[in-house]
TrEMBL record:
This is DUF1294 domain-containing protein. Keywords: Membrane, Transmembrane, Transmembrane helix. The keyword Zinc does not apply. The chain crosses the membrane at residues 12-30, 36-55, 71-90, 102-120. The keyword S-adenosyl-L-methionine does not apply. It holds the Pfam family DUF1294.
Length: 146
């Protein structure tokens, strides 16, 4: 089966954008313009996203229990969207489902809005508060899925 034009380059535009974003954050952290913990959160959440997408693709192919879409969206919202873009391209998973993509893009926009607010506001939000809110949201999604 021939690969689509969207995947002809191997990675696709989405994966390239996600990788560029993570590299830009890392360079921003090295230059002292972005807190190092922000770059670390995106890198870790992106890695988790790639892993979860890969496991979900494997489960789909084996007709096993799947990862709920809301969990994939929450990972993206919490900073894993660059890894999710990479995984969608590499695994060809969830990349053509219109409803999923609409919500995924919304989570990316919201995530970038929050990041922009964090980097340019003088709100003084702390890492521990941000992680607590993220953990509570993740826990809520996980416990509802059981």
């Amino acid at each position: 089966m021939a690969r689509s034009a969207r995947h002809a380059g191997g990675w696709g535009l989405g994966a390239t954008i996600g990788l560029f974003f993570v590299i830009a954050l890392a360079l921003g952290a090295i230059a002292g313009r972005v807190p190092a913990w922000v770059a670390l959160v995106y890198a870790v959440m992106s890695g988790i996203s790639v892993l979860v997408y890969g496991l979900d693709k494997s489960a789909a192919m084996a007709n096993r229990r799947r990862t709920p879409e809301r969990s994939l969206h929450l990972l993206a919202l919490l900073g894993g969207w660059p890894g999710a873009l990479l995984a969608q391209s590499v695994f060809r998973h969830k990349s053509s489902k219109a409803g999923f993509q609409w919500m995924f893009r919304l989570t990316v926009v919201v995530n970038l809005g929050v990041l922009t607010w964090l980097l340019w506001s003088r709100s003084g939000i702390s890492l521990d508060r941000l992680l607590l809110v993220g953990w509570q949201a993740l826990h809520s999604v996980i416990t509802r899925g059981q």
